[in-house]
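Lab notebook, page 48
Experiment: co-folding of the full assembly
Goal: obtain a model of how the components sit together before planning crosslinking
Operator: M.T.
Materials (sequences as entered):
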Amino acid sequence: DAGVIQSPRHEVTEMGQEVTLRCKPISGHNSLFWYRQTMMRGLELLIYFNNNVPIDDSGMPEDRFSAKMPNASFSTLKIQPSEPRDSAVYFCASSLGTGLGYTFGSGTRLTVV
Amino acid sequence: DQQVKQNSPSLSVQEGRISILNCDYTNSMFDYFLWYKKYPAEGPTFLISISSIKDKNEDGRFTVFLNKSAKHLSLHIVPSQPGDSAVYFCAASANYGQNFVFGPGTRLSVLP
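Observation: model returned without errors.
Model output:
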């Protein structure tokens, strides 16, 4: 089991550019979560999916952020246009949906300059 | 307003001693709690959980205590080892759901 796979590991982009973060959940997990970690706010839930359907996106900071899960094995988080304050580590996590907790990916460190 | 609080941003403990990490929550609907450990450049990894029907759960050197009336939980690590040095996150959910709210984390340093 390769775990939750995120790409890229690091992304440096210029302000105004579009950024796409990718996640492959653990096979068989039916829930997927996107979190953002910053020094000031810790781990914040952005959005989560259950069976590929977005359930709660109240954590998405603004319309510049969007997430999709076209199938059970892939999800994207897109920021367009990116801003320096979006710089953070973005984690994807997946779970079996039984409330037992998640398995996190290694994260994508995003730097917007 | 943070629903899950970890008021100590950092903690230093001598190797072999007990580490106690604290977590407070405000939402009385929370009934399931997790602790995660995070090393630099890695994702958080699950450590231990406790549900509201219990007040203690133990796994090896790690014990979590839950005081529902005080809306407080704590993680005890005994004995502490240098490899325990990491950031520890407390997380809580309501209705045993999947939507966990995380605290800001406590950085534990275990000194040899």
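Interpretation: The interface with chain A takes residues 32, 34, 36, 41-46, 49, 89, 91, 93, 96-105 of chain B (CB under 8 Å).
Next step: discuss with group before ordering constructs.
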